[in-house]
Amino acid sequence: MARLVRNCLRLPVTCALAVVAVAVAGCATAPSGGSPRSAPGGNSQAQAYVQPLPPPAPTSSWLPDQVVLGFLHASASYAFDPAAARQYLSPELRRNWHPGRGVAVVGPIGPSNVTRLQYNPKENLGSDQSAQVVVHLTGQQLATVSQSGQYQYAPGNINTQFMLARDADGVYLIEHLPLQTLMLTESDFEEVYQPRNLFFFAPAPASQTPSELVPDPVYAPLQSSNSALNTDLATGLVNGLIKGQGGWLSGATYTAFPAGTRLLKRVTIAGKTAQVDLGGAAAHMHPEQVMLMEEQLAATLGDGSYALPLATHIQLSINNSVQDTIGVPDLVPEVPKGPVELITGTSSVGELSAQPAHGDKVQARLSQDQIGAGTVKAVAASPSSDHPPQLAVLVQANAGGCTVEEQPGGQGAYRNYPLTGSDVSCRSISYDANGNLWAAAGSGVWVLFPGHTPVAVDLSAIAPAIQPGDQILALRMAPDGVRAALLVSTPGSGSRLLMAAVRVRGGNAWFGPPVIVGTAGLTDPMAISWYDAYHLAVLATEGIYEVPLTGGPGQQPAPQLVSTAPPGAATLTADGTELVVGTNQGQIFAEAVSSPVWTLVANGADPAYPG
Q1: Are 319 and 344 in contact (CB under 8 A)?
Q2: Fewer CB atoms near the end CB (10 Å): N or C, the chain?
Q3: Rg (Cα) of the chain, in Å, rounded?
């Protein structure tokens, strides 16, 4: 690509068209920007980016379809260089075009996707005008990125038209655009948008201050052509915090930034300290709330989950008066540690150590005398500091249907809580950080609040992603208790991963609109576990992957293979440092992530770390 650009200095007309053709085909080498865009959406390796080269301005030798292709590629540079795309527009459209309805991510666009249809005579042509040309564009839409930041799969056909006319210099320019939005090819989107996290607080009891931060994955487009200090990117992320949430976590988490807060000037970064100056409503906040704003800022700008951190410290000013300087807080909950519970028989449960090894003895935890008859299908342990932890089991009743067995209040005899009255497959149970027990059976989900009977979870918001006949294979609650990961199987279509925000109020529970977690490159996902707050561990045919929550087609960063799996592996649990699987042959294998060698530990099924 560099050689092609250098040669263009000698052959500008021919090479200009070649640059457009190569760039639209996906040869551009970096990102540009705007405000953060959520992706309901790699591995833990930080990513570095380089600014892309916008295509050259059209000339009189360019054909109308080449102008359209050049415009689409130049749109990738809109945030840091709006003129790159506007140079393809007529003067009137150039003044009035302000794309603000989000982004459409589309499949590859090339010469075969554009067709010149006809010439439409214009009435009262002036000396600087000529006949209009209609260019028909076809292709595949893959996803949309809304103004509020949510990234959603939105497959469909593209069938639209651009209208062009020559200007006084004989250059074809676009006079009419089909949409007030940016249309980016998948390859341009991957290079232009950088995965990041915004951080919001998980709800806390009314008497307590929010203390745990929840990452909200976003694709934040880079904005400046040479921004060593990343000030534009940091400014965009801070504005994302101030504007609040409009995506899938909205209503399930909280922000310390009051409505009416303003960023008085661009964020600057000096010596890895980000300097943020707020005004407006932030000037009237109690010092405790100011501290919470600082924590959100520091976590967001200091996050290195998917890309290099922008800062290690935050200096917050309000109305130009320095308030405080803090480091990146450690407020994101880790995946719980603890012993591994496992099914040891039809109606029995045992326990292994937190780091299972060959020769470990399985300690008996539950027997049929405690939990009654029926076939234990899944086991869960509460993510508390208690040892031994409270256990619950999901049982396939002999008479059909699913029941949960749990000790009320964690003490005394186990009690039977029926979930379904028909012969439905019992699949999965998981505790959240608040001690609520969530169970999946068939295509339904139930929650057992401490001291209450099970309540069916309202799944209407995720209905478009879970069709009749689908089965929820696994349900895993995040360490923060706000996010649920769902592995859903569709007959004939394989399995897919969904994320949904958990909302609980007045004894009722429901899941918010789902986002799809990208599993590009994975074949037949069959089991999931939380790897850390930012990634899932996913067991697939090829092995066990660390899958980021950024999602999206052409997912970046991509899922990373952590380990191959033992033959017959069917279930999985992880705590960030250890992987434990159960096989179809009734064996439990374990390995440390730092020393990937599988060890046969015991006989049993469905191992589970707390959570």
Answers
A1: no
A2: N
A3: 27
> Cβ(201)–Cβ(212) under 8 Å?
yes
- How confident is the model over 422-480, as pLDDT tens digits? 778 899 999 999 899 999 999 999 999 998 999 999 999 998 788 778 899 999 999 99
- Cα separation values, 324 from 201, 291, 316, 330, Å: 20, 9, 6, 17
Fill in the amino acid letter for 95.
R
C-alpha 547/C-alpha 272 separation (Å) is 29
Domain match, 221 and 288 both: yes
CA 381, CA 431: separation in Å to the nearest integer?
7
Whether residue 333 is contained in a domain is answered as: no
For residue 67, is it within any domain? yes
**4-18, 108-122, 205-219, 583-597 — most confident range:** 583-597
92 residue type, one letter: E
Of 327, 360, 376, the position where a domain reaches its end is 327
Q: Please report, for the domain that includes residue 537, its CATH number.
A: 2.120.10.30
**pTM of the predicted structure, to 2 decimals:** 0.82
- Specify whether 319 is located in the same domain as 372: no
Tens-place pLDDT, residues 333-389: 999 999 999 999 999 999 999 999 998 999 999 999 999 889 999 999 999 777 778
Question: Do 153 and 201 reside in the same domain of the chain?
Answer: no
| Domains held by the chain: number | 3
pLDDT band at 581 (very low <50, low <70, confident <90, very high): very high
Indicate whether 93 pLDDT > 90.
yes
18 and 104, same structural domain? Answer: yes
Single residue among 125, 160, 192 that ends a domain in this structure: 192
Structure confidence at residue 119 as a pLDDT band (50, 70, 90): low
**Which residue in 586, 593, 589 sits closest to 537, CA to CA?**
593
Which residues form the domain of 273? 193-327
Task: Provide the 8-state DSSP code for 522.
Answer: -
Written in H, E and C, the secondary structure of 68-120 is HHHHHHHHHHCCCCHHHHHCCECHHHHHHCCCCCCEEEECCCCHHHEEEEEEE
CA distance 332 to 409: 27
